[in-house]
Structures are given as C-alpha cells and as structure tokens.
UniProtKB/TrEMBL annotation:
GO biological process, one term: RNA modification
PPR repeats, residue ranges: 51-85, 153-187
Organism of this sequence: Selaginella moellendorffii (Spikemoss)
InterPro entries found in the cross-reference section: PPR (IPR050421), PPR_rpt (IPR002885), TPR-like_helical_dom_sf (IPR011990)
Name of the protein this chain belongs to: Pentacotripeptide-repeat region of PRORP domain-containing protein
Pfam families named among the record's database cross-references: PPR
Keywords: Repeat
Length: 272
C-alpha cells in the first residue's frame, strides 16, 4: 500500500497540486501512519506554510515510530516557528517525553497547558506519568491545576497512584486508591496491582487482604495470576508464610513467593 501512496504523491506533483497544504498534510499523515518517517519528514519539509495540523501529524508520526527525541525536537521547532500548540500537540509530545524522562521539556509542556487552559484527562495522565517516572511527585500533583478532579478518569487516578508509589509514598498511593473508589471510579487490573504493591511496601497488610477478598464483589473482576502474585508478595513481606502457603496451593506460581520466603528464612515453602 505504501508504494501506491508514493505513486499518488508523485502524481500530485506532476499534476500541479504539490503546493496544496491540505493534500501535503495528508501525505505526511499517510507516511507517518505507515511508519515511513523519513518520507513523512520529506513531505513535511516540502510544506511551505505549515499549520498546527502539519506539526501535529508529524509529531504523531515520530512518536508512533518510537522516535521520541525527534518528537521533542519538533515541538521545540514548532515553538520557534511561532505556531502555538494545542491539546493534541501537548498530548503527543508529553507521551513522547514520558518514555525517556526529559523533565525540562515536561515542565515546558505543563506551562503551555496551563496557558491555554487545557483540561483534558489524557494530557493530565501523560504529564503525571512523566513526572512520576522522573521522581517528581509534587509536580505530578500540580497537574491537578490543569485537570480538575471531575475531569479525571481511571487512567488519571492510576497514573497518580503509580507516581506516588514510584516516589516511595506508598501509604499515599493506597489512600488514593481508596479515594478513587469513594469517588465512584472503577479500578482496573493495573490500579489493583499498584495498590497491592504499595500495600506491600507500606506494610498495610489488612488493607491488601480486604481488597483481595472483595475484588470480585466490589469490582466484578476475577483475580488474575498477576494479582495472586502481588498478594503473595504482600503476605511474604509481612511474614505471613502460612497464609501465603494456603493461597499458593490454588495457583500454579511459585517464583514470586521464593523471594518473599527468602526474606524471612522460609525457603522450604518455595520448595513444596
């Protein structure tokens, strides 16, 4: 299909439509979605008067092709060209940044978001993820200024929990999980896994035990093997070897318990 696209590209130029920005934008989008980033760049450079859509589709193509640093450089060039970013721009570049932790760029994006009053949960989630991976929990919390709580969704809550846990604030992550439920949000398997991890590190054994026992009733979720492993880690770290033994008998996993048992000198459990 890409060869057919290149044929159309050539026909546009030979038929005199090479200067049509709308068509040139579509060419950039086509190449980007096909993963042909070099062709997309060439088509992008051929656009004489680029608009925000031109920049956004080039940013998206770079991000989707895992060329994260290219996306960040494009964002800087867009700023120098005097093209104001919109929410699509900010989402694309933030998701690119979150893969390799360029904190300064993240803060610049945050400033742009505040300046244009963006209140999009996808952007908030991407910014929280970026700050969390950089270990800047306070900055992650500050994202609330661009996304009021009513604009959050499950992914936003989960990203904030992950940021807290990554920053060593495990008790706060557990508290946020509880608030998430109180405000009517349904956790997914990722949120539950983070909650168990945080409970394990915070020594909040009862909270983890109660949550695990009520997963099906409260959330309609069947415990996955990963959640069993997480619960085993909680019990193992707390020295609950007998309870862990009872749980492990029902699932075909033992590796996670091995490390936990080793912590408490009960390696015999992992050899059952």
């Amino acid at each position: 299909e890409i060869e057919r696209g290149r044929e159309i590209h050539a026909q546009l130029h030979t038929s005199g439509y090479g200067g049509d920005r709308y068509l040139e934008n579509l060419l950039v989008q086509m190449y980007g979605e096909c993963g042909c980033v070099e062709d997309a760049h060439a088509a992008f450079e051929a656009i004489h008067e680029r608009n925000s859509f031109s920049w956004n589709i080039m940013l998206a193509g770079s991000r989707q092709s895992q060329l994260k640093s290219d996306a960040v450089r494009l964002f800087a060039s867009m700023d120098l060209a005097g093209i104001p970013p919109d929410e699509i721009t900010l989402i694309n570049v933030t998701e690119a940044c979150s893969s390799f932790d360029p904190l300064d760029e993240g803060r610049t994006i945050h400033e742009h978001a505040v300046a244009i009053s963006v209140a999009v949960h996808k952007l908030a989630t991407a910014l929280i993820t970026l700050y969390g991976r950089c270990g800047h929990v306070a900055d992650a919390w500050s994202v609330c200024t661009i996304a009021a709580r009513e604009n959050w969704n499950t992914y936003t809550w989960t990203a904030m929990m992950a940021a807290l846990a990554a920053g060593g604030q495990h008790g706060e992550a557990v508290n946020l999980f509880q608030r998430m439920g109180q405000e009517g949000f349904q956790p997914d398997l990722v949120a539950l896994g983070i909650n168990f991890l945080a409970c394990s590190h915070a020594g909040m054994i009862d909270q983890a035990r109660n949550c695990f026992a009520s997963i099906d009733r409260d959330y309609g979720i069947t415990a996955s093997p990963e959640l069993f492993v997480s619960m085993l880690d909680v019990l193992g770290r707390s020295g609950g070897v007998q309870e862990a033994r009872e749980l492990i008998e029902s699932i075909p996993v033992g590796g996670a318990l091995l490390g936990s048992c080793g912590i408490h000198g009960a390696r015999h459990l992992s050899r059952r």
